[in-house]
Amino acid sequence: MPDCDKNKGSIVHKAVDYIRFLQRSGSITFEKWRDEKREAEETIKALQTQNKQLEDHIRQLERELEQAKRGAGGAAGPDPKRRKGDAA
Questions:
Q1: pLDDT tens per residue, the chain (88 residues)?
Q2: Global confidence as pTM
Q3: Which of 12, 58, 63, 72 holds its CA 20 to 30 A away from the CA of 49?
């Protein structure tokens, strides 16, 4: 039965080809996942830095606001409806 041997050899060959295909696909998928993970981590780090800078800026503005309130001594400020140059 030489045909059976050829058929078995063909099946084994196709199985090996498929295993190699799966290995390449898995490797490509893993590399893609790894690259996406690295990019996400870099984005997270950049956003954390930006968030810290914004929080620092907010604290600075809050300090400036408190200083401005103390400097005004509680007195009412200029009328916000009144524009420069308008007659009183």
A1: 456 667 888 889 999 999 898 888 888 888 889 999 999 999 999 999 999 999 999 999 999 999 999 988 755 555 556 556 555 4
A2: 0.52
A3: 63
